[in-house]
């Protein structure tokens, strides 16, 4: 007689024979385990790992999680409901660097009754639906930058990180430097190959302006798909770096005298009725519709609040400065402005593609939350017919345009005070994200650095 004392019957939905067939198909390709990743508030994937024998249960919503796991926020009491993760099968990928694992992105809810308020994917989908109701679909391209280090242990010292590529004093900047690119050729070759297997559409890569800093150019996609893609991208970069004996980081500003790592957000709208890009005027690149300028005006109106999501760490604001510690000019935006091909502005109108480029965001951003607020701001600009004024034709840090938040504290204060934030996100997310980030700022603010001691200890 079969023992049924502990028979599992807690799936959210009925088991589907089709999912059993998918599991067998994956198993035939060598897949042993599946992950239905939910994304925490900081943009990191979290998941249990499930053997393929339980794949159908996983897809039916068998796996439950405690909300406290979401990036350390979520006010939890002992009787709070668990959240259920139901994977979106359209996100199913076999990890090409370890084909034992299948990867999916999950949607989180309280037992299917209501979306979980802290789920980034739910927040973005709400704005995708709002755009559709206004007659648009939203596409996104991202230009992610990151540093790659070679961990080296120095005798008599603590472990330190050495960039995988180094530039000499005769080269004012290692940007586009071929030798610096080839210094990481094993890692980059593996990375681009694996991303190509995942259909990421990598069309260029190269060395950026910091030693050991790289950027990949990835084809655009519908915004929710792109946010899912970037979650896997960050995971892939770090995993493949480990495979090569390296360490990759998306920290916005590892070095005071080198460029920070941005993540420029290239967003466009497609008119659902005509199927045409809503930003392009005719067939000529560089000519823009009124809708484009209205969208930009909305984004600029809410740029201070957006900074709390696009630049979510205390370290982020060491990048948003007019110059580096050694006096070099930085192109990172510092003022609320837009320009025609002006790389110092918060928003740039590129001359070779029909999108707006939000340049202030960095590589620590949660692409779901950041995209959600950017869409909401742009749509408001269209609805209200906002005007961004004339484009800035000079370096933005020399202009009198309003200043972007200079610290995480200023950004969070702007975030809290912006009515659109409260319309876009749940009260739970706004209050708990605010609380978490204020604690982060305070923790950093209370530190006394070695640099401060060197500057003041003997002088004061």
UniProtKB/TrEMBL annotation:
One Gene Ontology term from the biological process aspect of the record: glutamine biosynthetic process
Chain ranges of the GS beta-grasp domain: 29-113
Similarity remark: Belongs to the glutamine synthetase family.
GO molecular function: ATP binding; glutamine synthetase activity
Keyword hit for Ribosomal protein: no
Source organism (scientific name): Mycolicibacterium porcinum
Pfam families per record: Gln-synt_C
GS catalytic domain: residues covered: 120-460
InterPro entries: Gln_synt_N, Gln_synt_N_sf, Gln_synth/guanido_kin_cat_dom, Gln_synth_cat_dom
Keywords, alphabetical: ATP-binding, Ligase, Nucleotide-binding
Protein name in UniProt: Glutamate--ammonia ligase
């Amino acid at each position: 007689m079969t023992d049924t004392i502990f028979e599992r019957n807690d799936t959210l939905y009925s088991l589907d024979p089709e999912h059993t067939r998918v599991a067998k198909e994956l198993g035939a390709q060598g897949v042993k385990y599946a992950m239905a990743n939910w994304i925490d508030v900081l943009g990191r994937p979290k998941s249990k790992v499930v053997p393929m024998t339980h794949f159908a249960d996983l897809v039916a919503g068998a796996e439950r999680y405690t909300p406290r796991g979401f990036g350390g926020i979520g006010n939890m009491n002992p009787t709070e409901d668990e959240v259920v993760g139901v994977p979106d099968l359209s996100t199913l990928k076999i990890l090409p660097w370890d084909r034992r694992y299948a990867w999916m992105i999950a949607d989180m809810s309280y037992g299917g009754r209501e979306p979980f308020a802290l789920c980034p994917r739910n927040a973005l989908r709400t704005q995708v639906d709002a755009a559709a109701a206004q007659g648009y679909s939203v596409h996104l391209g991202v230009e992610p930058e990151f540093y790659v280090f070679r961990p080296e242990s120095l005798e008599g010292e603590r472990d330190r990180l050495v960039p995988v590529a180094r530039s000499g004093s005769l080269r004012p900047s290692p940007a586009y430097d071929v030798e610096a690119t080839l210094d990481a050729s094993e890692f980059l070759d593996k990375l681009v190959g694996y991303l190509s297997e995942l259909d990421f559409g990598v069309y260029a890569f190269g060395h950026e302006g910091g030693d050991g800093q790289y950027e990949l150019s990835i084809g655009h996609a519908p915004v929710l798909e792109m946010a899912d893609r970037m979650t896997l991208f960050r995971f892939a970069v770090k995993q493949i770096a480990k495979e090569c004996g390296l360490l990759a980081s998306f920290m916005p500003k590892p070095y005071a005298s080198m460029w920070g790592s941005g993540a420029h957000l290239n967003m466009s709208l497609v008119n659902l009725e005509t199927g045409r890009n809503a930003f392009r005027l005719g067939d000529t690149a560089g000519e823009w519709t009124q809708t484009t300028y209205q969208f930009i005006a909305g984004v600029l109106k809410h740029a201070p609040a957006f900074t709390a999501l696009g630049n979510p760490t205390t370290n982020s604001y060491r990048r948003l400065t007019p110059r580096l510690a050694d006096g070099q000019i930085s192109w990172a935006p510092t003022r609320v402005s837009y320009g025609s091909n002006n790389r110092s502005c918060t928003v740039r109108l590129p001359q070779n593609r029909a999108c707006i480029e939000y340049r202030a965001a960095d590589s620590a951003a949660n692409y779901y939350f950041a995209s959600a607020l950017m869409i909401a701001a742009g749509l408001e600009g269209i609805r209200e017919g906002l005007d961004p004024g004339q484009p800035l034709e000079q370096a933005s840090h020399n202009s009198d345009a309003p200043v972007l938040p200079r610290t995480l504290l200023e950004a969070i204060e702007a975030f809290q005070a912006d009515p659109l934030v409260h319309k876009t996100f749940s009260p739970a997310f706004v209050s708990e994200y605010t609380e978490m980030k204020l604690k982060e700022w305070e923790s950093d603010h209370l530190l006394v650095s070695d640099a401060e001691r060197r500057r003041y200890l003997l002088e004061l």
